[in-house]
Amino acid sequence: MKGTLVDTPESPDTREPGDTLLAIPDLGDAEELSCDVLVIGGGTAGTMAALTAAEHGADVLPLEKAHVRHSGALAMGMDGVNNAVIPGRAEPDDYVAEITRANDGIVDQSTVRQTATRGFAMVQRLESYGVKFEKDEHGEYAVRQVHRSGSYVLPMPEGKDVKKVLYRQLRRREMRERIRIENRVMPVRVLTSPEDGRAIGAAGFNTRTGRFVTVRAGSVILATGACGRLGLPASGYLYGTYENPTNAGDGYAMAYHAGAELTGIECFQINPLIKDYNGPACAVAVLTETAPVGTGPALAAALADTDGAVRAAAAASLRELVETLTPEPALHDPLTHALAQPDPVVRAAALDVLRALRLGDAGLFARSLGDPDISVRIEAVRALVSVDAAEALVRAADDTSREVRVTVAKALATVGADAGRRNVAVTTGAAATDADAGHRNLVVPSGSAAGPAPDATAADLVLAALDRLTEDTDALVRGAAFASLAGTGAPAPLAERAVRAQADPAWQVRAGAATALSVADAEVAVPALAKALADPNADVRKAAVLALVRHTQPTEFGEQGEHSEGGTGRRGTDGDVSPTSTATTVAAAREALATAATDSDADVRAYASRAL
């Protein structure tokens, strides 16, 4: 092999003539490869990318600096997926909101939403490969709650074998015909076209021989992982990081040199040990671990500490221990006083704990609807749900924040259903009760000219609020409002609006409208839902399928299976049964579901097939 000799500090007299410790290969001897799709990185992400490209007919070349069989951050396995948004257990918007809160708003929500909307299909795909996920006694995915709100963690009983399972997929005969794995090749640059800057390949070298390798590709996928040592905690751990130290930021460097703009790499995970905390905050952490008698009041008192780190630790600890705390006056007073603290983290935590321990009332919670911080107002909305304060929630529907209005729209479904069942009377403009002092003079506009009557019930007010939220300027608010109608009822005007919303440019609105049609009159709903099965967005089609299922199950609302003459009965929120379906509409709904059973999306097919 031709090459350049590299000398060493050793004396030449100790070596035979021509001996060298290293020979740098000549560029002219570079190995040249070509493919349709080049995947840089052979970890879990790279393996899945290679399989996907090959399944679509491409000739794929993964480059891995180690060996694909046991490389990547998940090579040693994992105990669960922490972003599993399972239909029926969580919604993508809920996950996006939780991750946004957990990261203090410093996230790219579009990326998080991709994870949320596509994660369930990925779980099913991994399961089809042989990866096992925990199921409950009913055969459903056993998601757990680890985040502050929502259940997104799906345990993997045999997670140590994830990479082995994926490697077997790569080595299947039909995959071997499409995928050529190049192990021990370290890419260092993405090659770009001088004409338009498009990625056309990569350059690297063999980590064993040093020989240069060039790849000509139709497209390039970077799947190199993050940069595990970009932010180093004072942990004393091997390599100074909890993350995989072989995630060295190769992809960041290659993308940068290829002309890509980088963003967000200043945000990294740091897991500090005790020495990273100050003294009082450390004491708070110890309280959390041991929880002796008096822990709750001590933590609540720490919310007023002058040090921000102490306040933050106390707020987090209270939320962590809330299920073990005893409701008592010693907790109520400092938590109530904390609502006036200038720190929004403290105010939000105080509301959360007051709600969970049922130490607050509607008046107390409603006052926080005017808080300048969005996260505090969101906690206030959740707290008002816990005390069924429908009227205060209706007032919050006019909040200036999209995130708050989305939360309100979802909350109205809960209090609206309860109000409908109990027929709770609410008098607008009446003298305030002790609980709602200062928050009773409401004007609730409606989509109709008349608006709510002076003696409107809580259910009337909720419907009026959802009426105007379905015409909100923000698509996420409209989508959430339409979806909430499924729990509160969809009278004819709103059902017709849901039908029109099937033409909305935002898929969230179309999906929410399809959900609303699940409780609308079948003559109106079924044709619109059948049409929605051709929607380009899979989530809209899934919502349409689930709504159609409701129109094929006339007895799901009552044990007796009440029927009208020649039709079926449906039980509303007030407990009455009214005829909404006919034999014709039931047949049409089942026919539409039969069509959905051949859908291109696995979730849509599964829901439709189960219904049939």
UniProtKB/TrEMBL annotation:
InterPro entries cross-referenced by the UniProt entry: ARM-like, ARM-type_fold, FAD-dep_OxRdtase_2_FAD-bd, FAD/NAD-bd_sf, HEAT, HEAT_type_2, PBS_lyase_HEAT, SdhA/FrdA/AprA
Keyword terms, alphabetized: Flavoprotein, Oxidoreductase, Repeat
Regions annotated as coiled coil: none
A Pfam family of this chain: FAD_binding_2
Top-rank taxon, per record: Bacteria
SUPFAM superfamilies, sorted: ARM repeat, FAD/NAD(P)-binding domain
PROSITE patterns membership: HEAT_REPEAT
The keyword Cytoplasm appears for this protein: no
Region (Disordered): 553-585
Domain FAD-dependent oxidoreductase 2 FAD-binding residues, every copy: 36-272
Gene3D superfamilies: FAD/NAD(P)-binding domain, Leucine-rich Repeat Variant
Protein name in the entry: HEAT repeat protein
